[in-house]
Design goal:
single chain, mainly alpha, 0% strand
Length: 71
């Protein structure tokens, strides 16, 4: 997750997206990092204009315990 956040700050969107997907693959269910990875993924997809995919990611963030105010 941290790697994705760093890549995002470096404007390396494709690599950041891959890092968030890896974080999602590794996060155990209920881990707060899971909701955060979904939120980051959603934000990145929204910035790329992939609104349907972003909405899905935000929905997953909420379903895994993310805070609606942070979305």
């Amino acid at each position: 997750l941290r790697r994705g956040e760093i890549l995002l700050r470096l404007d390396r969107a494709a690599e950041a997206l891959a890092a968030f997907e890896q974080a999602l693959d590794r996060a155990p269910p209920g881990d707060p990092a899971e909701a955060l990875a979904w939120r980051h993924r959603g934000s990145l997809l929204r910035e790329q204009g992939l609104l349907d995919e972003a909405a899905g990611a935000f929905t997953r963030a909420l379903a895994t315990g993310g805070d609606a105010e942070e979305l």
